[in-house]
User: What shape does this take?
Amino acid sequence: MKREAPPAEGLVLVVRRVVEAEPDRLFDAWTRPEELRAWWGPRSVRCTGAEVDLRAGGRYRIDHELPGGARLTIEGQFSVVERPRRLAYSWRVVPGGGGTELVTVRFEPKGVRRTEVIVTHERIGSADLRSSHEEGWAGCLDGLARHAAAPP
Assistant: This one.
């Protein structure tokens, strides 16, 4: 009898972007609700709310309004909070019905006032979803770079 291979743990996506800002500044922009609301999401998506309990075991929630008025929420729980270098958290889209994914964000210094932001998104359920996440993360990192460049 032939046995089937066990199901894969899902697809992985890694997105990188060098941003003109120090790790502390980018970590704060990623974890402070008032800053998240200012830059999160691709340009066509509006962040309508953000809540962050920044500690291992703490939860977060980011609300979105999509083009056409549809709404969705990304929520999860932090497993790693290492200021200003690394965050790891679960990722679940509501409504969405998909499984729980995992996101790790690293902020790596690259000289004076430059940081490489590395987003690793794991446990993605399909190639189409991976492609959608890739587009979303590219838009988010563009927004983060614009936000970091703006005067405080």
